[in-house]
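At this stage, I needed to go through a protein sequence along with its fold in token form, as given directly below:
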Amino acid sequence: MRIYLLSSFLLFSACNVVEENDNVKKSEISLLSEKINKNPSNTDYLIDRAMFNLDKNKHESALFDLKQCLLIDSLNSEFNFLAAQSYFEISKYDKTKSEYGTLALECIKKSTDRDPNNHLALSLHGELNIALHDISKL
């Protein structure tokens, strides 16, 4: 009986911890959204929310913010790299968005043009060229 009560208590406690973590995460995204609503042209807030969504593998939500960043500063290497990464990931699992591979390639070209020493961007550029069967541009 004690074991049953102890295991029930532990299970209940673990559920509360998960709920608390979810609430903390929800409040974090809510706070970022509030900051963005107050100042929609602040790319720092947009990138923070995009990174939050990328950490959760929510590429489409991240891409929404990254597109906003690119409208503000279309030449920013980091914005273009992250957008390319998001476009590419979405194109892998959503075959209805076949144009996303091309959009990823456009973004990564801008990123590597602006920052030719970014090894992550160069690596993604190569991966995109291979994935899109455009080996001649490697």
Remarks:
- Residues 4-10 have pLDDT under 50 and may be disordered.
